[in-house]
Amino acid sequence: MKKVAANALMELRSPKTFRRILRGGIGKYAVYRIAAPEDLLMISRFYQYHKRPNGRGPMTRLLDDVLSSNERGCALVASVGDRIVGSAILARFPGNEEFFPDWWLFGIAVHILLRGAGIGESIVGIALHQAVLLGAKSVYLSVSVGNKAALGLYEKMGFKEVSTPNFEIMLKGMAKESGHQSKIFCRKIVRV
Prior knowledge:
By secondary structure, this protein is α+β, with helices and mostly antiparallel strands. It has helices at about 1-15, 15-25, 40-45, 60-70, 120-135, 150-155, 165-180, and strands at about 30-35, 75-80, 85-90, 105-110, 140-145, 160, 180-190.
């Protein structure tokens, strides 16, 4: 009997089992929506911009832009109760297609305790649906080479690694500063 209990406890400690429990639990209670301008403070707190010296993060201006103009894109949030537990920004950069062709997904994030619950996959899926509605031909994103879970998710969702030379130059400069290398992925939008 003790051996059975010990095996059950070890099974519960398994990350795979933990994710399965999350998917059947908290993940299914998440509510997904397009963010409104009044969500800016909550989203900024989710990304922890308030902890930066000037209270703004690198994505704050983009977040301001997409929350104030539907033509520029949208911010998506997942919440459980009144807490944001996931977010992403879908944006385009008219006049700057040399660096940012078509639509881009930025800031795809899920609360650390809820990763593996399907929230990230749902946010990306909703972002792709929004991209279709906004007339996108493709959606790009960049992801850290070390983020194996995200790489697996994006490949599972049909994203393929691509080359965009101008953006890659910018990424290399950022990698020198931060020490983090990134890859660029793209998913073509298929209309039915």
